[in-house]
């Protein structure tokens, strides 16, 4: 009954989509357990490129059942256009299951995400503007609208009216915006209900029964460890729990059933949005990493901030998530460098820190302590085994492994499915 979690080990965009897709023929279910359409997961299959936001990557594997778990926040309009977009390319989402307990992103969530960011000014989070924070806020505040409410028009109407009763006051009196019409929202969401009904299910029950029958479940995280609401660089985080603990609460699969945790780790570091980033390179080297690695947001198109690999955050990801295997992605991007610095610890006000500092203030002041490794000039995208890699690339991987707290079991040398070196089995 393998239930394996796949988590981003940095600030998101590590290559979770590619890694999930790679495992597509070994798994029966792929479950998104948190986040929403703030995610952008890229999958390259042959000459086809897909960008998935809400649909689990498993939708691209015909024998996999894709599941949107209870921990996800769903913008139903976006979900349906994603389904239609894939359908137009010959990919069916008919098998999709959606948890009745997942929450819905409502128009007022999107409006509030935008105005609250504007209100914060220079202190803004740099959100994706998709309504994620306000939707999770209302979930915790117990004012959320859930997928199951789509099945009961009377309840749906009541919930929309109660929510807008408060949110319209906030929008008009605090932010000087227009009110949102409850009847229009009700009509819009009842329209979505018609199309989504066949997919709504008790997904926790289905997944646990599948595990009883020895089926393989892969839990696909969005975002990453340092964007976690509890363990990330708060407040510059997303509003959910991408870490492996969140996989349980966000799917209804208990911790005792998890059999492995795959941490996806980029061979360097990127981040989108505001917040601390000790190894960030704000020079030509950062531009080189961005251009060479194609580091532009899949969801918002923003430039990703780029920097060297940070072993302190890799170790932290290993600890918080209980990583059993790392999948190191984008090693090919580093080809052509003379020397490759790796951050092995931080210096904060003259004191060395081998682990993430306890306070936000210290983390903001953390200066990387680098160790340099010799680079390699060869194009490694054609490598098929670890031994095919140049000696210096092998040494770089081994060094990262020794610092990161878990073995490196797969290495990405290109965006395609086949451009992966498998060292140990991941499932
Ligand atoms: P995700 O959000 O974690 O799924 O990652 P994104 O899709 O946002 O960003 C990762 C990018 O790197 C995508 O464009 C992938 O196609 C690409 N990618 C993934 N693995 C590799 C790799 O090993 N090498 C290269 N060159 N690109 C990769
Ligand atoms: P994937 O799944 C990278 C970042 C945003 C912002 C912060 C909060 O593709 O790795 P939100 O809209 O979630 O309230 O924004 O989180 N962020 C991501 N960064 N990859 C993602 O997803 C992200 N999802 C959210 O840029 O800094
Ligand atoms: Mg992404």
UniProtKB/TrEMBL annotation:
Binding residue positions for IMP: 13-16, 38-41, 128, 142, 223, 238, 302
Cofactor requirement: Mg(2+)
Annotated positions binding Mg(2+): 13, 40
Catalyses which reaction(s): IMP + L-aspartate + GTP = N(6)-(1,2-dicarboxyethyl)-AMP + GDP + phosphate + 2 H(+)
GO terms of biological process kind: 'de novo' AMP biosynthetic process; IMP metabolic process
Cofactor note text: Binds 1 Mg(2+) ion per subunit.
Predominant cellular place of this UniProt entry's protein: cytoplasm
Pfam families associated with the record: Adenylsucc_synt
PROSITE patterns, alphabetized: ADENYLOSUCCIN_SYN_1, ADENYLOSUCCIN_SYN_2
Record key words, sorted: Cytoplasm, GTP-binding, Ligase, Magnesium, Metal-binding, Nucleotide-binding, Purine biosynthesis
Record-listed GTP binding positions: 12-18, 40-42, 304, 330-332, 412-414
UniProt function note: Plays an important role in the de novo pathway of purine nucleotide biosynthesis. Catalyzes the first committed step in the biosynthesis of AMP from IMP.
This protein's name: Adenylosuccinate synthetase
Native species: Streptosporangium saharense
């Amino acid at each position: 009954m393998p239930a394996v979690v796949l988590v981003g080990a940095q600030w998101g965009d590590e290559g979770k989509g590619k890694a999930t897709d790679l495992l597509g023929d070994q798994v029966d279910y792929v479950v998104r357990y948190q986040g929403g359409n703030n995610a952008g997961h890229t999958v390259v299959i042959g000459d086809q490129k897909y960008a998935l936001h809400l649909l689990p990557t498993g939708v691209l594997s015909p024998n996999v059942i894709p599941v949107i778990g209870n921990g996800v926040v769903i913008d139903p309009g976006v979900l349906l256009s994603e389904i239609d977009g894939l359908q137009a390319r010959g990919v069916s989402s008919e098998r999709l299951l959606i948890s009745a307990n997942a929450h819905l992103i409502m128009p007022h969530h999107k409006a509030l995400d935008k105005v609250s960011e504007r209100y914060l000014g220079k202190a803004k989070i740099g959100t994706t503007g998709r309504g994620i924070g306000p939707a999770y806020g209302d979930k915790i505040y117990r004012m959320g609208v859930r997928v199951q409410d789509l099945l009961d028009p009377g309840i749906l109407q009541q919930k929309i009216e109660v929510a807008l009763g408060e949110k319209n006051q906030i929008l008009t009196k605090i932010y000087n915006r227009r009110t949102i019409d409850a009847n229009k929202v009700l009509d819009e969401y009842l329209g979505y209900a018609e199309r989504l009904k066949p997919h709504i299910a008790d997904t926790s029950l289905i997944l646990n029964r599948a595990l009883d029958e020895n089926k393989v479940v892969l839990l696909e995280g969005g975002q990453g460890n340092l964007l976690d609401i509890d363990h990330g660089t708060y407040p510059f985080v997303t509003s959910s729990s991408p870490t492996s603990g969140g996989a349980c609460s966000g799917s209804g699969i208990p911790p005792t059933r998890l059999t492995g945790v795959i941490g996806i780790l980029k061979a360097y570091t990127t981040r989108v949005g505001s917040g601390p980033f000790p190894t960030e390179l704000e020079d030509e080297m950062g531009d080189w990493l961005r251009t060479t690695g194609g580091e532009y947001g899949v969801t918002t198109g923003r430039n990703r901030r780029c920097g060297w690999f940070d072993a302190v955050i890799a170790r932290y990801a290993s600890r918080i998530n209980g990583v059993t295997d790392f999948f190191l992605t984008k090693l090919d991007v580093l080809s052509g460098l003379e020397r490759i610095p790796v951050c092995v610890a931080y210096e904060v006000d003259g004191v060395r820190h081998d682990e993430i500092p306890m306070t936000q203030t210290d983390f903001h002041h953390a200066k990387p302590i680098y160790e340099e490794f010799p680079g390699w000039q060869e194009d490694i995208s054609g490598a098929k085994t670890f031994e095919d890699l140049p000696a210096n690339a092998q040494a770089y991987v081994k060094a990262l492994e020794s610092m990161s707290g878990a073995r490196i079991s797969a290495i990405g040398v290109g965006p395609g499915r086949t451009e992966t070196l498998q060292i140990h089995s991941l499932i």
